[in-house]
Every structure is written in structure tokens, then in C-alpha cells.
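#structure-requests
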Amino acid sequence: MSCASVASPIEIFAAGDVGRRRHWSDEDKIRIVEESLRGFRQGSATARRYGISRSLLSIWRREYRRGTLGCPDVGDGFVPLVMEGAALAPSDHASHGSGDARIDITLTNGRRMTIPASLAPSHLAALLAVVDPR
């Protein structure tokens, strides 16, 4: 009786290919991470689609949540700002002087806060130290 063996496909590297690595641009990393966050259980599928390990994608996702992906020189005090919603109409600019203007802030730890637009930066810094300590 003949013995059939199953061999997995192998890839033979040429001498010049030794140590080859793909280098992902910061824009590509951000695009891949955002794609992986779009739906339920998309991390593994996205990693397979781009031929990267799930652990590498997890590292990129962690850096993305912290705001350090693509910004190696950014310190702990800086987080990228994302503006959502429609631009202000010219009639909305008049309301900025009034005390009822508010700013919604979503922190990297998932907490949200709404503050008055007239809040002093020093008071905001004190609030952030309590709500999002590092």
C-alpha cells in the first residue's frame, strides 16, 4: 500500500531576500487599524487580508487608541483631535460669545465630557488630570 504524504507549500528565498521585511507607512497602518475597528471581530480577518500577524495589528490598535500611531515624537500630553459634525454656519459664529456654547470631548479611555467653551485651559487641565490620569 502506498503512503501518501501531505506537504505544506514552502517558499524558497533567494540570497538577496534574506531579512526582508515589509515597511508600512503610517498612513497604511492607520487605514488598516481603522478598517479592523469597523465591525465585530474584524481584527483577525483584517490581519489575514494584509498578511500581518494579529499581535502586530493589536500593537497598532493599542498605539492608535493612545494616539501615538504615526506620531513617534508625540509626548503623553498630546492626542490627535478628531472633529465630527457639520461646519458652523455663519449665523452660528455669533453664539460663540454667549455662555451656552459647549464642547464635547471623548477621551482615549472611552470617557466623555461636555464642558463650556469659556472654561479656562487651567481648569480643563485639572479636570483631565482627574478624569483621565496617566
